[in-house]
Structures are given as C-alpha cells and as structure tokens.
Amino acid sequence: MNLAQNLKSKLHITSPVTGHLLLPIFLLTCCSIASAQTSATPTLRPDQIRADKGTPNDDTTPLTTIEEEMRAKRQIKFAEKEHRENMARANEIADLGKGLADAFKQKKQLDREDLKRLERLEKLTRKVRSEAGGEDCDTALEKPPADLESGVSRMGEVAVSLGDKVKDTPRQVISASVIDEANVLLQLIRVVRTMVH
Predict the structure, then answer these.
(1) C-beta neighbour count of 140 within 10 angstroms
(2) Are 165 and 184 contacting, i.e. CB atoms less than 8 angstroms apart?
(3) Rounded CA gap, 92 and 55, in Å?
(4) Digit-coded pLDDT (tens) for 29-79
(5) What is the pLDDT of residues 122-176, one digit of tens each?
(6) Cα→Cα distances 103→11, 110, 152, 163, Å
(7) pTM for the whole structure
(8) How far apart are CA 71 and CA 75, in angstroms?
(9) 181 contact partners, CB below 8 Å, separation of at least 6
(10) Phi, psi (5° rounding) for residue 98?
(11) Which of 1, 2, 4 is nearest to 19 (CA)?
C-alpha cells in the first residue's frame, strides 16, 4: 500500500476509489511498455536473409549466390579452354595425316620419324574421341586397305575429314560422326602400323 499512498500524494488524489482505479491502470501500462521493449525482432545472421527480404529459413535456397556464379563462370571457362584445346588437336590431326600421306608419296615408305608422328596421330585421335564421348570399339573396317600406299593415303583423308568434323561440331554437342570417324582413323592407324612392321 505504500506505493498507492505515494502515488496518491504525488498525483494529489483525494478520493480512495479513484486511487484504486488508477493504480491497476498504471501498473498495466508499465508492464505493457516493458514487454514491448523486451520483445524485439530476432537478430538474423547474413546466411538467413534472402535476397527478396523474405522470412528466414523458408526452406528455399537463394536463386544465385556469389559462390555459385563464380563456380559457373569457372566451369564455362574450363569448358571453353577444353574446346580450344580440342580444336588445336583437330588441326594437328589434320596436319599430321596430310603430312604422313605427303611423306609417303615422296619416300614410298615410313621412316622412324613418320612412325613417331603416327603414334602422335593415334594419341590425339584417342583424345578427340574421348572428348566427343566415345570409347574403344572393336569393329573392323568395312574396306581395309590392300597395301601400305592405299592405307596411308586413306588415313590422311580420314584425318583431314576428322579434323573438319571436330571443327564443325559445337562445344556442347556429342557428335556420333566424330566418334565414328575417330574409330575409323584409329583402325586405319593400326592397319598401317601392322603393314610397316
């Protein structure tokens, strides 16, 4: 009751009924002010805030984040680099095939240096086939070359054709014609190698 008497004396309330009514109102007002001050909005961590300022933890992931964008850019750069390297391989395949055919026409044989170029041609062709989505197959040539001259000549033609097909194929396409042409070239390389030895 000391609180009520102090309040009465400070507010100069003389009637006891008025004092008893004002005291609960005053206490309720103080309690509501105090509770309003303590129930602040929860503090959110940066990973809980979405780009559209929605509620935290909506069980939806943000559409894009800096990390995802950087990862996507890295993947695109890597794919473009792989494509450029594949184009360079295609150019080298065409050059090696044409060079081997020209060398055989001049010398009528394949020397040690030509056999090294033949190995390089095989390695590049395997890589191009792999990049195109192909793998080893054991199908025989439809019309195998009868002699070394026709084998080297046909190998040169197929190498140039493979190089052109790789160049014409977009980066994101798996080309069955590139795979088939690479398989034919690899079979021709095997035939030529057995004819030389």
Answers:
(1) 7
(2) no
(3) 57
(4) 766 776 666 555 555 555 555 555 555 555 555 556 888 889 989 999 998
(5) 999 999 988 888 887 767 778 888 888 888 899 999 999 999 988 888 877 778 8
(6) 117, 8, 10, 19
(7) 0.61
(8) 6
(9) 158, 161, 162, 165
(10) -65, -40
(11) 4
Which residue is it, tokens 């057995």?
Answer: 194
Q: What's the rounded Cα separation, in Å, for the pair 87 and 171?
A: 10
pLDDT higher at 138 or 195: 195
For tokens 């935290």, name the residue: 56
**Residue ranges of the alpha helices (H) in 39-175?**
66-107, 112-131, 148-168
- Both tokens of residue 40? 């602040």
Structure tokens at 34: 């105090």
Whole-number Å distance between alpha carbons of 108 and 61: 67
* Total residues found in the chain within this entry: 197
**Minimal CA–CA distance to 131: which of 71, 161, 88, 74?**
88
Which of 99, 125, 95 minimizes the C-alpha distance to 113?
Answer: 99
CA distance 1 to 99: 113
Q: What separation in angstroms does the CA of 159 have from each of 97, 130, 194?
A: 5, 16, 18
Q: Say which amino acid occupies 79.
A: A
SS3 (DSSP) at 23 = helix
- Tell me the per-residue pLDDT of 72-100, one tens digit each, with 9 for 90 and over: 899 999 989 988 998 999 999 999 999 99
Q: Residue 168 corresponds to which tokens in the numbers above?
A: 């014409």
